[in-house]
Amino acid sequence: MSVVAGRASRGTIVGAVCVREWREALGNKLLVGMTLLPPIVILAAGVFAVAAAAIYPPNEKDLRAIYAAAPAVAGLDPTEAVQGIIAQYFLILFMLIPTVVPLTIAIYSVIGEKAARTLEPLLASPVGVGELLLAKSIASTIPAVLVTWIAYLIYLASVIVLGSPAAVHAVTAPRWVLAVVLMVPLLTALSVNLGILISTRVNDVRVAQQIGGLVVVPVVAIGIAQVTGRVVLDDGSFIRTTVFLVVIDAVVFVAARLAFQRENILTRWR
Amino acid sequence: MRVVLRTDALTKRFGPLTAVDGLDIEVREGEVFGFLGPNGAGKTTTLRLLCALIAPTSGSAEVAGMRLGRDDERIRAAVGILTEHPGMYERLSAADNLRFFASLYGLDRPTAEAQVTRFLGLMGLAEQRDRPVATFSRGMKQKMAIARAALHEPRILFLDEPTTGLDPDAARTVRDLITSLARDGRTVFMCTHNLDEADRLCDRIAFFRHRVIRIDEPDRLRAELYGRTVEIRVTPAPLPAHLERVRAVAGVREAWMENGAILVRTDDPLRTDPVLVRALVDAGADVAFVSERRASLEDVYLRIVHEEETTS
């Protein structure tokens, strides 16, 4: 039998690598667990907090603190005000999902291949390293974005059912919807490429996660700053953050591409 | 036969270390070419260079009619490589591992499926096609890796230690595959420490330690280094007088007694052997049998490597 082998199209290669990555990931129970746990915990906590705020209204002291921290809710009914603030606070926590989940997937994707020594046969095929990096990025980004969006939609539905009009108004505010639509993929891409970049240098998943975990610090810092009233997330700050993420995404992708060289992978990665 | 692989002063340095130093070789179509050398000699680096996995520091090479450095992706599509470690996707089944690589080499679905079935069958893994590779033994994984390297029917197949970790039965399967590929006109470039296997399979052999020390057919190397040794048994036992008569025969390079036999080193046994037998019979010896004793490739290897060590 005569076979005509050559080079598959870029789309076929990226698609094949993505599907293979997902099939391998789905077979890794630990990875599936680590992927699903953060959104489940954040979602459950968010829904519980909004529901609890409806049942237990704040006392006078708490209310004063809330009005001081969030002047926008001053004058609202106390229960509504608390629900609005809690609902919005958890939206920031949802921004943690695209930093934590894809980082784990990306780290397993590269370090897993290093440990199994599957990269050399892969690199010996007609696959370009750029295609491989792109496929790994896509394979880590898509599940993380989908998980975040699904968690957000469930949260949205729960708030609409359980929450006050202020809470519903907070979670359906156009800037937050846009943040989820735009910033979630950007944060995910940042986390993925950072994960790949770190994985080129270390061989231990835990070490890579510890280093990569630093990416959550700015998100947590913004959340704390907002809760304490030091930062007000207005339209301007969302636009600035989005532009900053686009720039940093490009920088980290270029850095990952530079680290992801065929010869480096084969001769220097240990 | 057509040359399918040619290198010209191919060199690879890693900082101060020269792994491959001015490699000049030509490998022909349909040839099984053995690449032998001690650990750390630069064999794997040479394979990686020739498969366009790493770039040379200097020199050039033409692989399957394509130029290294210019046509790297096409070279990788035209060759197959068995790497030092099998490196299979353990959670995927045997068939899915091969299907994945078939898609990277651009095989259409029916061809890919036919090739997967064919190579799993050739490697004796047809029954295990739907089992995850994680459940396979080391030998089965090695056979899978060979199937993966040959799946797209490359013009040149590079094999790094193909029978390492295989039981004798599996090793034979691999050797049969190599022989059949060569019969079909495919070129096999093989690094191995299994000298017996190299002796049986290879048309030519290169002894390599950062550079080619010697390159030739195994029999010619043996003849060049050791001549051809003939063992003569006489009954009841050879006498010193017999040895003297043997030494006097034209064409005899060296003769000695060992374990009750006369051993004779000669360049042309076909011409010398009848004269030897006549001389011994004339000297009153009863010749029981005459046979040729071949130096093993191990002897050749050790001598060449040792000589190279001494000279360098």
Care to describe what's here?
The complex is a heterodimer of chains A (270) and B (312). Chain A contains 13 helices and no strands. By secondary structure, chain A is an all-alpha fold. Chain A has one domain (10-267). The longest helix of chain A has 34 residues, at 129-162. Chain A is elongated, with a radius of gyration of 22 Å. The model of chain A has no long low-confidence stretch (mean pLDDT 84). Chain B has 312 residues and is of the alpha/beta class. Chain B folds into 2 domains: 3-221, Rossmann fold; 228-294, 2-Layer Sandwich (Alpha-Beta Plaits). Chain B is built from 11 helices and 15 strands. Chain B has a 6-stranded mixed beta sheet, with helices on both faces. In chain B, strands 1, 2, 3, 5 and 6 form a 5-stranded antiparallel beta sheet that branches. Chain B has a 4-stranded antiparallel beta sheet with strand order 13-14-12-15. In chain B, β8, α6 (168-183) and β9 form a beta-alpha-beta unit. In chain B, α4 crosses α5. The two termini of chain B are 35 Å apart. Classes of the chains: A mainly alpha (270), B alpha/beta (312). At the A-B interface, α1, α6 and α13 of A face α2, α3, α4 and α5 of B.
